[in-house]
Amino acid sequence: MSGLQFNVQNLFQEDFFEVGRHFDGLGLCFAGIVIVFSSLLTICLFISVLPKLLDQVDKIFPPAPEPQPSPSTSVSGGDETEKVAAIAYALRQQRGG
Amino acid sequence: MDVLKQFLGTTAVANMEWGNVLMIVVGCIFISLAIIKHYEPLLLLPIGFGCVVGNIPAIPSMLVDVYDEGSVLWYLYQGVDRGIYPPLIFLGIGAMTDFSTMLSNPRLVLLGAAAQVGIFLTILGALCLGFSPSEAGSIGIIGGADGPTAIFLSSQLAPNLLGPIAIAAYSYMALVPVIQPPIMKLLTSREERLIRMKPPRVVSKRERIIFPIVAFMICSIIVPGSLTLIAMLFFGNLLKESGVTERLAEAARIPLIDCVTILLGLTVGASTAAEKFITTQSMAIFGLGALAFAISTASGVLFAKFMNLFLKDKINPLLGAAGVSAVPDSARVVQHVGQEEDPNNFLLMHAMAPNVAGVIGSAVAAGVLWSYLV
Predict the structure, then answer these.
(1) Residue A92 and residue A62 share a domain
(2) What are the pLDDT digits (tens) for A67-80?
(3) Are residues A88 and A55 part of one domain?
(4) Mean pLDDT over all residues of chain B?
(5) Within an 8 Å CB–CB cutoff, is residue A16 touching chain B?
(6) What is the pTM of this model?
(7) Shortest Cα distance from B124 to chain A (angstroms)?
């Protein structure tokens, strides 16, 4: 596209900054930076509003309450705790005695 | 005796040239850096060994190296040559990445955009040196400090420069702890380096699930050229965050990415045969790559300082250097440089925000260049 060949001598030409004239390098550079910033700025804005958006959604559709543990589970848990406590007490008595 | 002479003529020693010896030494240096200095060992060790493999001269009639169509290494190299490995690596990166810190502090996303400036400025330099626009685009992307992205773009735009670009990109990724700190210190004052960041807020699971879907749509709608890389990145992240595909996320972030890294590193290294690699063009690519990387680091830091002109809660400008997408090395460098001034200042978590934003930014930049230059 540029009609040029890679050459280190290009560095030492008087019109160094004109070498790439055949291709709109500055245009690509500027457009590229603008597009990358636009994309990430859009993501940034989206992230900023997301928590507020979710709060609004929660107001319209309230989240379901978390299920409470059933009484039978707690009784069973209590039994287990009591057994462990009893075993620990017995062991302590045995070692102490 | 003739048979023995004939056999000796086919050995690597007989066909070895000084360039091959030089590249074997370079390969050994990479291996040493990986083992002794722990510089990106997962990449430098396979690449270094690949350099040694690729510079053992083969018998011309035998199909051995990556450029011999039909050889085993040629088949493995097709994953690089056709841009298959980089999206798979992005899948793994997505499954490993936690976007929480970025979600909790959205303004840091902009630092990930600012650090891509080096890509585009380097393209101008490459054009001035007489590289074609496609080649210049592939060289510029080195400034993103993202090896897979650099390989993906150069496989599409300038396959003839794939070897030097891949080696330059991965070398500079490995040299992040060496290249970045002087630039960061030069551009910031002690007071700026001492700035402490506010602790990030807790991010809900719903936010983490919605983010990859919407961010993918935003990026791919604005820059469809980035679709391949961005889709894999955010798909991997959705596997992780959804909580219902933990097995798939685990497969993507460990076995898959490890296998691809091995194949990619070895074959990229093996593509550095001296007769194709040691050229003035390669040296120019290394020079321009270093320039791109330095500009990207500087632009990230300077943009953070620019943002501070308008912000009430100041950003530590060191975080700008993490906008290049060498994850997590540049974030670690920020932490290290910050702690040199104040050992109780923990910047790592905050630096991960621009760091992962940089991954998105460099993929978007690659998409822009691909769309425009193809």
Answers:
(1) no
(2) 666 555 444 455 67
(3) no
(4) 92
(5) yes
(6) 0.85
(7) 6
